[in-house]
Amino acid sequence: MRAYDIIDIKKNGGTLTDEQIREFMRAYLEGEVEDYQVSALLMAICLRGMTSEETHSLTMAIRDSGDVLDFEGIEGFRVDKHSTGGVGDKTSLIVAPIVASLGVKVAKMSGRGLGHTGGTIDKLESIDSFEVSIDRDKFESIVNDIGLCIIGQTAEIAPLDKRLYALRDVTATVDSIPLIASSIMGKKLAMADDGIVLDVKCGKGAFMKSIEDSTTLARAMVDIGAMAGKKTVAIITDMNSPLGYAIGNALEVREAIEVLKGKQVDDLRRLCICLSAHMLHLYTAEDISRCEEKCIEAIDSGRAYEKFRQMVIAQGGDVSLIDDEDKLLRARYSVEVLSEQSGYIYSQDAEAYGKIALHLGAGRRTKSDSISYNAGIILSKKVGDSVRSGEVIATLYADDMSLMDDARDMLLDATIISDTPPPTRDIILGEVR
Ligand code: URA
């Protein structure tokens, strides 16, 4: 069948067979189908959707486009955690060492940030000399020795996703439930973990703005995981305002270390305990409340921080920067943003805050941009806090002073202050099994 016919079927709301999807994608990877034809199919999928069978077929086409790792050399039960992307989301840096300190193996491949959302690999690279390109043997041996290793994506894993994502990024076809589900799960299934915990973000700073869409995305991914025989659970979490107080690579590593050392950063710590408890539960099958107690104990005893430290050493990073995490505050300039009115912080638009961090140099607009690891924002106030006129609501960090004025104006615009406090909203919004 011609590529044209496949596009036409989807354009008219029809259902594609497994063979049609796999054949179309094979032909694309082998240069027989052009980017503009794939873009047309992606747009048709965006507008018409996909059945769960079609989404499954696309996921498998993505998984099978590259190496499917079995990690035979790694002993033990491996669990991964994946977030659909948010602002200030440094949870991987916290949950991975928590569960690794409790016997779960974490052999993690993470991505870089793009647009207003950050990526774990950029954050880790803000620790001097931290190595994210590690060959397979060394990766397996680190996971066997200390239970934990986080590396960047390799070209061999799910190359089809890389090609599709690059097209989606420039054709306004990112925010499609079947495309996101197959992209994430295709990569996850290629890593052949025993269990997967998905953090599906919901709100202004997320791809999915409503609880209904987030639940549908979560259900699609959990079903794909189950069909592939993986223990999979999704937690739906709030992404209307930034997670924690820090946004920007080195600043987020600093906050993650603070949480691992016991600091009570309410929303961030609560979410990390929830996610790590679900990861542990997939391994031990104990009650979630018991798993939560164990995760809290891992932090309080210092074992989780020690695990993070072992990972930094094993991956060649400068451990002095994490033993004294304030050394990560290295931006050349910092500017305090003062509130222009008194009241309560009603909202802090997560997407807008992500864009301010991007403006300050913390992120990249295109994949080839370089970033400033030191740049970003530290909030002094969070949603629900009271504030007086003239009080500091945030501090901006950048290596280029000329970026500060616009960033300050953007931050004031993205922060709504009201006379009455906003309704309280839990960070955990739901769960899909
Ligand atoms: N993260 C991914 O890996 N893929 C998407 O499509 C969206 C978020």
Characterise the protein shown here.
The structure is a single chain. The protein has three domains: 3-49, Transferase, Pyrimidine Nucleoside Phosphorylase, Chain C (Transferase, Pyrimidine Nucleoside Phosphorylase, Chain A, domain 3); 79-154 and 190-323, 3-Layer(aba) Sandwich (Pyrimidine Nucleoside Phosphorylase, Chain A, domain 2); 331-418, Alpha-Beta Complex (Aldehyde Oxidoreductase, domain 3), CATH 3.90.1170.30. 53% of the residues are buried. It is α/β, with parallel strands linked by helices. The strands form four sheets. Strands 1-4-5-13 form a four-stranded mixed beta sheet, with helices on both faces. Helices cover 46% and strands 15% of the residues. Uracil binds at residues 84-85, 174, 179-180, 183-184.
List keywords for this structure.
Aldehyde Oxidoreductase, domain 3; 433 residues; binds uracil; 3 domains; 13 strands; alpha/beta; four-stranded antiparallel sheet; Pyrimidine Nucleoside Phosphorylase, Chain A, domain 2
Topology of helices and strands:
Elements: H1 3-11, H2 18-29, H3 35-48, H4 52-63, E1 79-83, H5 91-100, E2 106-110, H6 120-125, H7 136-146, E3 148-152, H8 159-170, H9 177-190, E4 195-202, H10 211-227, E5 231-238, E6 246-247, H11 249-260, H12 266-284, H13 288-300, H14 303-314, H15 320-323, E7 333-338, E8 343-348, H16 350-360, E9 376-379, E10 386-387, E11 392-398, H17 404-413, E12 415-418, E13 428-432
Parallel strand pairs: 1-4, 2-3, 4-5
Antiparallel strand pairs: 5-13, 6-9, 7-11, 8-10, 8-12, 9-11
Helix pairs in contact: 1-3, 2-4, 4-9, 4-10, 5-11, 5-12, 5-14, 9-10, 12-13, 16-17
